[in-house]
Write a structure and sequence with these properties.
This protein is α+β, with helices and mostly antiparallel strands. Helix content is 39%, strand content 18%. It has helices spanning 12-26, 31-40, 44-59, 61-71, 79-94, 99-112, 119-131, 133-141, 148-157, 162-168, 186-195, 254-268, 285-300, 329-341, 398-401, 404-421, 444-453, and strands spanning 175-179, 200-210, 217-227, 244-246, 273-279, 306-310, 313-316, 319-326, 353-359, 377-383, 425-435, 457-462, 470-471, 476-477, 517-523.
């Protein structure tokens, strides 16, 4: 009976498959569209090694590229050769692959991609690294592993956090869960996880907003679950039944904030019919969370559907129209898939809530009869398109796919969407602006420019009772930073690495969420 192959004797076809995937990424394809086909092409024993090899190579891509340039006697311009050598360097410095296996199998791999003439070069560079891996690992780890333009921008934006931030972006991200409040609560689900021997802890996020109309503060709480060690979603109890979702802890702030702001609107101006907009909604995580909150309020006869005006008066909402829009049909499909798994909208609110999901362009789309003030939106959640620099830990291909000019183009797109949606917001309504970027041009600077263009817009400030993010002149910024004990040490390339982009490839246990920016805008009357 043959034994299970270990990570030092993986078939060379695994390395060839990973090299081809890396070449596709460098040609502009996204990891999210390449990962499943890669894993599906391999035998079960090879999937974990391929996953670890691919993601670890991407996380240290720019560092190993610079190291390669210092090791080579002459410039290496052929992308196929450079990619193969960087794959080999990653095995020697960051994965517990035996030197002889890393070198031999990588040399064999370059032959299988029709670059046999470069096998001597590949062999020579990798042997040089293998002679003193600690020296070269220290050299590769000394600085960031980002394209220079991005590192320079981060230094300009976040000088005091720069070193910790750039090193954190080389790590894998923790795995967080959001419990569907219509089915259970966070503590009960932690108990279910414990029964499956999955360790987890409760994360409590507190948000406090200074309401301009009353001068009072509004407190908002959200509980998330952090897994001590990431696991495949197939191991999560009742995942397919919709009891929980994988969602970053900072992403879980959006729905509670916009929902609480909506309570303010309804309390100030009681109405029987309200309209809501979730713009750029795909893949639907924040939309699903919002629907869960709406359903739970109706179930408990509190909140939006039963707003108390005074000790003797209560406002009841008879109809809620929630429109969700996105401009890509495949992403719209993902919204429907996610909502179906979560059994949303919940039957309890079906009689009152109408959900409309449309594939449209947010820069030009106009809601029906928007010229009629009664048809404008009471609240808008805008999860704006961005460079996604705040989620590099989960999607390390971003550092290869993004270019400096993308930031300006994205900021212009954000501006167009904001200027198109703002006239469709009612006076007294709120717009929650969210990105998963850590670049100020897409975040606080975008908001400052917007406020300068729109005299009827006022920023609602977060106060010091908010226990997440960094206060900005407008809004609040979360950075993907956590403390590392022994950062960037070699890690094991296990065969049972979870098959999901939410996995944690490193042995470290991060304690922080992704990079997100939040800003709240209120639309005031012309005489305000």
């Amino acid at each position: 009976m043959s034994s299970k192959p270990n990570s030092t004797t993986q078939n060379k076809n695994v390395r060839v498959a990973v090299i081809n995937t890396l070449l596709s990424i460098q040609q502009g394809q996204s990891l999210s569209g390449l990962l499943d086909p890669l894993l599906n092409s391999l035998n079960g024993d090879d999937k974990g090694f391929a996953h670890a090899l691919l993601l670890t190579t991407l996380r240290h891509w720019h560092a190993t590229a610079r190291l390669l340039d210092s090791l080579a006697d002459n410039p290496i311009d052929e992308i196929e050769v450079r990619t193969t050598i960087q794959l080999g360097i990653t095995q020697l410095l960051y994965l517990n692959v035996a030197d002889h296996a890393a070198i031999h199998e990588t040399v064999e791999a370059v032959k299988h991609i029709d670059y046999a003439r470069a096998s001597g070069l590949v062999n020579a560079v990798l042997r040089k690294v293998a002679k003193n891996p600690n020296k070269f690992r220290k050299k590769a780890n000394k600085n960031h592993s980002l394209p220079n333009w991005l590192a320079q921008q981060l230094k300009a934006d976040w000088r005091e956090h720069y070193d910790e931030l750039t090193q954190s972006l080389r790590q894998s991200a923790p795995m967080f869960l959001r419990v569907n409040g219509l089915q259970t609560d966070s503590q009960s689900y932690i108990n279910q996880l414990a029964e499956e021997e999955i360790s987890a802890e409760l994360i409590s996020l507190e948000t406090s907003l200074k309401m301009s109309n009353t001068g009072e503060t509004m407190g908002i709480k959200q509980q998330a679950i952090e897994l001590i060690d990431s696991v495949p979603v197939s191991r999560l109890p009742e995942f397919e039944e919709g009891i929980t979702s994988v969602q970053d802890v900072h992403a879980q702030l959006a729905a509670p904030i916009i929902d609480a702001l909506l309570q303010q609107v309804i309390t100030a101006n009681p109405a029987e019919h309200i309209r809501l907009l979730d713009a750029c909604a795909a893949p639907g995580g924040k939309l699903a969370h919002w629907l869960e909150l709406l359903g739970n309020q109706e179930k408990q006869q509190t909140g939006l559907f039963h707003v108390k005006q005074s000790d003797s008066q209560e406002s009841t909402i008879d109809k809620v129209e929630l429109t969700a829009i996105d401009n890509e049909a495949p992403r719209i499909t993902r919204i429907f898939e996610n909502l179906e798994r979560l059994q949303l909208p919940a039957p309890i609110v079906n009689s009152k809530l109408h959900l409309d999901i449309e594939c449209v362009d947010a820069t030009t789309w106009q809601a029906k009869e928007v010229s009629d003030a009664s048809a404008a939106f009471d609240a808008i959640l805008l999860d704006a398109p961005c460079t996604a620099t705040g989620v590099i830990r989960r999607h390390p291909d971003i550092t290869l796919l993004r270019h400096e000019e993308d930031v300006q183009h994205t900021a212009q797109l954000q501006e167009q969407i904001l200027d198109n949606l703002w006239p469709q917001l009612k006076t007294g309504g709120y717009l929650l602006y969210v990105t998963c970027s850590i670049l100020k041009q897409e975040n606080v600077e975008q908001m400052q420019a917007f406020l300068n263009r729109h005299n009827d817009a006022v920023a609602v400030a977060f106060d010091n009772k908010t226990n997440w993010g960094i206060e900005q002149e407008v809004g609040r910024q979360c950075l993907p930073i956590y403390k590392m004990t022994e950062a960037l040490e070699p890690i094991a390339a296990q065969d049972d690495t979870p098959e999901t982009d939410e996995v944690q490839v490193n042995a470290q246990a991060p304690a922080g969420g992704d990079g997100f920016y939040y800003a709240v805008l209120k639309k005031q009357g012309s005489d305000s």
